[in-house]
Please model this.
Amino acid sequence: MYSPKFKPKLRPLDVIPLHQQGEERFLLRDPIGYGENHMILRREAMPLLALMDGDHDLRDLQVAASRAWGRIVFMDTIIRIVEQMDQCLFLDSPHFQEEKLRKEREFASQDVRRSPMAWRSYPGEREELKAFINDLFDSYRGTVSQRGEPPRALIAPHIDLRLGARAFVAAYSTWRGLPPNSRIVILGTGHYLDGPFAFTDKVFETPLGLARTDVEFLQALKMATGLNLKAREWFHRTEHSVELQVLFLQYLMGDIPFTIVPVLCGGIFPEGPRPWEVEEFQRVIPAMKELLDRKTYIVAGVDFSHLGIRYGDPHPARSREAELALAHDKRLWQPILSMDPNAFLEKVLEGGNPYRVCGVAPLFVLLSLLRHRKLKGKLLLQDVAHMDEGSLVSFGAAGFWERG
Model:
């Protein structure tokens, strides 16, 4: 199947270090979810990945492997590695393109977006999950600092529920009084999104039930923008940043009816064009702003700084780095609470976003939607979670209340 002239091209992958049987290895997986299997490579095979760029053929890989391993590597060994990677859908190949199209069509035909996180990141049984979230609220009741009318907009994390419990509780405790038939626009972080927005009209299913998407809102947005809003719908399949917000809304609302508008946001990078230079941003944001009526609330599911070994830093992130992350985030909270999207963007992208804030796009969209509204922003909580011995993520909770 693979001739020596075949030039493999690697797709973007997660590469996670592992220690097995006293040996360092690396787990490869597809973060976008086309390939559902993973693959483990020894350290000695990792240099081959750099040559899988579409310009080097299998003979180049064979020569590189022979030099790196200090012995003659036969072509069948290289073919076996490449074949396995292609079967895992790690290569941009004809096989991948066929599977990509098939899987996207299959997902598009489904009416319900089912939870990929249940049983993995939180309990998969309804009553067990309700008890789990109830325990979070009971444990961190002291983080709640605001009563009265619910804020028009929230900022909440999308980190693991246990690690981000204090911030989730601080944010969502303020929404206990949401009125019936509220519409909640959920701005999620599209971690691997290849454009500004991904919309879906699917019903979101979790162990707590079904959350209906406001199809009428999306139809009005489509009419106003003239865009195919479902062009990137696939990215909702495995993305967790919207899903976790749905969980808390279902928990708080119970049997009270509400609808959601799930939106993944991306496409803003230090080296890329600014949103005001991108037509899709300039069509969608004003159109969404026109549709924000009294029944509409907004939540942005975002995390902030990512530091340490897991995120590519040469040194572990510990207490000192946690202090730096919180100080850096504090600078960002100033334009966020002032609802100044351009000032926020300038600060977060300064120096190339060295703290790797992953919620840049949804925060920019949120602030653009809130700009010039008579709201007052309030920071409810900042926090840091250590993901492992050498890596950390920072996040927070905030609300935007109507001025009395």
In short: The CA atoms of residues 113 and 204 lie 5 Å apart.
